[in-house]
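Lab notebook: predicted structure, single chain.

Context: the supervisor wants predicted structures on file for every construct in the current expression panel, including those that have not yet been purified. This is the next one on the list. No modifications to the sequence; it matches the entry in the shared construct table.
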Amino acid sequence: MQPQENVSPMDEVPSGMLDSWSQETLCMQLKQLFDENYFNILQLNNLIYGFNTARDAHGLPAVRGKSGAEYGALEALHCVAFADMLPTVRAGIASAVLRVLSLDEEWGNNLFGITRWTDVMQHFGQLQAAPQAGVEHENADPERKGTMEKITLLEREKRLLACQKMRKHVRTREAEGGGPRENLALRLAFAISVLTGIGLAVMGQGIPTVVMSCSGVFFVTCLLVMGFSRTPKTHSEQLDVLLTAYDPIDREAYRHLQAQALASELITPKAVLVWLKAEEKAIRQAARIPKPELTFLNKQV
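Prediction complete. Output recorded below exactly as produced.
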């Protein structure tokens, strides 16, 4: 009896096709991966779960999922605009997605049928075309297009300042250990304590009196600020306040940030920085001054 060779999921023949509704649903989700301006890893995560659930119900092996090197590379492209990618990177996304989902021509035809699988592959092929930087995707949010045309230079500066404030806060979060309210309390308590000490020293008070008074002032100030200040206690709360008050230009990137926060139940600094990069680019493009039309160039001499 010969030993059985190791067979990968890509080499096995599926035992049957998915039902029509599952085919339609998964094919729809596959095509939606490239229907926006940005690559969204959260949509791929949903597909991994959906494929594994459907395959398990039919006795089929699980997909490669997050175990392969391709997933790590795709995760690094989360929220990156297709127009900003190198042509080679953009062209390789579709094949990387298929490897993560353990899909090839044989699997696709057997799971979805030839017609649906061909439709999916044609949709994937559209990603090979290089979108021009600064040009809106054909499926871009119409509200975003309208807003992009109305931004003034003054509005641009206000929005860039707001983005700069959020970026500064993210970097402060990485550098400081405490939350915004705690850091505010320590700074105020230290400043008031120093002023109190200087005042007592000028009045001729002894060192023991100055030290005890400054310690008491420091402690009381910390208690008052921590108890009554409206400054958010945590950095996540502070980012939530700033993001809620901000009206984005790039609504699509903002929705990606919302989806990521919903999935992770946390506003992460990395996700905010990725969004800020996309938002600042959109702001500059929205406020771009059109070049004047030079009619003399058409004059025949």
